[in-house]
Amino acid sequence: xxxxxxxxxxxxxxxxxxxxxxxxxxxxxxxxxxxxxxxxxxxxxxxxxxxxxxxxxxxxxxxxxxxxxxxxxxxxxxxxxxxxxxxxxxxxxxxxxxxxxxxxxxxxxxxxxxxxxxxxxxxxxxxxxxxxxxxxxxxxxxxxxxxxxxxxxxxxxxxxxxxxxxxxxxxxxxxxxxxxxxxxxxxxxxxxxxxxxxxxxxxxxxxxxxxxxxxxxxxxxxxxxxxxxxxxxxxxxxxxxxxxxxxxxxxxxxxxxxxxxxxxxxxxxxxxxxxxxxxxxxxxxxxxxxxxxxxxxxxxxxxxxxxxxxxxxxxxxxxxxxxxxxxxxxxxxxxxxxxxxxxxxxxxxxxxxxxxxxxxxxxxxxxxxxxxxxxxxxxxxxxxxxxxxxxxxxxxxxxxxxxxxxxxxxxxxxxxxxxxxxxxxxxxxxxxxxxxxxxxxxxxxxxxxxxxxxxxxxxxxxxxxxxxxxxxxxxxxxxxxxxxxxxxxxxxxxxxxxxxxxxxxxxxxxxxxxxxxxxxxxxxxxxxxxxxxxxxxxxxxxxxxxxxxxxxxxxxxxxxxxxxxxxxxxxxxxxxxxxxxxxxxxxxxxxxxxxxxxxxxxxxxxxxxxxxxxxxxxxxxxxxxxxxxxxxxxxxxxxxxxxxxxxxxxxxxxxxxxxxxxxxxxxxxxxxxxxxxxxxxxxxxxxxxxxxxxxxxxxxxxxxxxxxx
Length: 709
Hints:
Blueprint: E1 3-11, E2 14-21, E3 24-32, E4 42-51, E5 56-60, E6 67-70, H1 83-113, E7 132-135, H2 150-153, H3 156-159, E8 165-172, E9 181-183, E10 188-189, E11 193-196, E12 204-205, H4 212-224, E13 232-235, H5 244-266, E14 272-275, H6 280-287, E15 293-299, H7 301-314, E16 322-324, H8 331-334, H9 338-343, E17 348-350, E18 356-361, E19 365-371, H10 381-403, E20 407-412, H11 419-433, E21 439-442, E22 450-455, H12 462-466, H13 482-499, E23 502-509, H14 511-520, H15 522-532, E24 535-540, E25 550-556, H16 559-572, H17 579-582, H18 599-620, H19 625-631, H20 640-643, H21 646-657, H22 695-703
Parallel strand pairs: 1-15, 6-9, 12-13, 15-16, 19-20, 23-24
Antiparallel strand pairs: 1-2, 2-3, 4-5, 4-8, 4-14, 5-6, 7-21, 8-9, 10-11, 11-13, 17-18, 18-19, 20-22, 21-22, 23-25
Helix pairs in contact: 6-7, 10-11, 13-14, 13-15, 18-21
């Protein structure tokens, strides 16, 4: 099949690069103008905080948030040590380098003699058997054995100080609330080489090159390179079939780039950017382009010029393969790529046999479920499971590359009984993962049918870079039901009533929630209002998403009302002796005596206040006779809850009889201002000249027992 690289640089806001094998999408990468890639950039940074509990430092490198620098990623040259300790450390480094040379030669011999990288005998770092390492870019090769001894002798707070200046490189992008991960072990990637300016013990040949003859030839070329002291070089897979002159030219380019970076560092002030990684077009040609790609089609004038010039610099003989797309139909539509890219946004991926896989990414875990679906061609369930799992293994490896799903990935394969089938599925999965540029650690299928792997993150995933959290479900993927949302609002109303800060509130909810409360939970709402003595009105706001609501306090609760509620709460608890101690005493003015009036005088004052209020109402011609009758009933006829308000009602009534307005009392007995108390309409009668209560207010008052005298 014809292999092509397509570059869509038509819009400056977004650049997309794909690699097609026939019509099948194999590689996909993109870059937006709003979020530039930080990985690979080099910064002159300053230490802002040293954290002994984490054995790390937080670094200000000029990003949106401080970066994280682990102690293992700090080069010993930055240690602030006495001269004697520094000499001893240099001797240890030299001895460790001599000890690693036989081990490196033994590893190279094992890799050269093996049939494939990450065979059955491969182990993960740390000697954990059963976990194989496959894939991986050339930049992470041969660097795992470094600086293991430094953390045993020193601690970060002893050798690193605040405000210290360092040259750091980003190895992991910022993600969510996490800052970028940094290192002081720098690396500059070229087409055929990777230069490590301060990793003298690193270097060698890429592990992906398994042919013994190629490894011997490249090792001889690497030995002849004029590598300065204190540097290391890795020969990449792309340089396997290149000549010595081409590899040396790429090496000299990287050395010149490092010299310019060092010169710029000496004349800069932290924090600042020293070196930026190439843009997406250059990175794609450098990392993804191979001899098997027959043509590179670019859409967009600026992108075409950039790709052409970079190809002439990198591989002059292949510059003619770079062509500009001038068709009327867009490039990705011409090769039917848009539909495949859109399909990557769906969690369900269909298989040719009729089965399908479901991908569910989370913060640090990706779950993949394999289902047989409509795959019914085989005669036995074991054969159906085996064929579906084989097809799913290849598709999962492809989807991990395209979507750049990283972290811990758990795949739930269809259960198989034959051990031979299980091993074949594992082998097919690992072979499909070999060509991944990310470093991957793969385990075995467990008795539960689960296969675990850990994949390195190369860039932000497709969903993170091109999407945002859903404002309706807040990223959960589900909306709360009407019934659950209504109960949530009722509980919020009851919580506000428990606080006792308002006598009237207004709650805005979606229309469906309001209708459900009115029709199904009207009794519960009335019970809450009666229990806490306040008025609740519901209003619709369809801009709110269930279970969201907005609560507004229309009227604050007065002091007398608070005393009445406190007395009611005390009596509901059955603690009558403590009721007097729980009441708050009224404020005394200067010069007033602290003595409380006798109980008989209080009762007489209450009766006199009620009589004066009745006379005043008769003179003004108040039309609210039912409500007034309810307020002026005797203690024997009133409900128990009203009987418990004797002292408070007397105190409140005496205040109204005197016409006292100094406290701004908003209790139910204040009729002269058209008070919007529970049980009335928008404006009570009195000065308004016989205006009738509104229907909602009348119904509300009737539900609470007002006006039933």
